[in-house]
Write a structure and sequence with these properties.
The chain is mainly alpha-helical. It folds into two domains: 1-31; 39-84, no CATH class. It has five helices and two strands. It has helices at residues 2-29, 39-46, 61-65, 67-70, 80-84, and strands spanning 54-55, 77-78. A two-stranded antiparallel sheet has the order 1-2.
Length: 97
């Protein structure tokens, strides 16, 4: 009787440990990435026609707002080099208490 109770407790403990680990890992994947996205990530998210460039129609948010500033060769597309050399967006100051 004691052996089956010990087995049950061991299995229960192992199950809880695995569940806690899985839960912790799933929460970490939902965190916002640190720093700006890579060009590869931008292509994955924005390059609808998969031509390896981002057009004004494909751009979103600050990238779309500053498209003409970033598109230095004025070809209508953002290349990896242009995005790499793009001006950094200004950070808004947080109000002080």
């Amino acid at each position: 009787m004691k052996k089956s109770a010990n087995k049950f407790l061991a299995i229960l403990g192992l199950t809880l440990a695995v569940s806690a680990t899985s839960y912790a890992q799933s929460n970490n994947s939902e965190e916002r990435p640190k720093g700006p996205p890579t060009f590869k990530q931008l292509l994955k998210d924005l390059d609808a026609n998969e031509d390896g460039k981002i057009s004004l129609e494909e751009a979103k948010g600050p990238l779309k707002e500053d498209f003409k500033k970033i598109d230095k060769d004025e070809d209508g597309f953002l290349s990896e080099e242009e995005i790499k050399n793009a001006p950094k967006p200004e950070r808004k100051e947080r109000p002080r208490d």
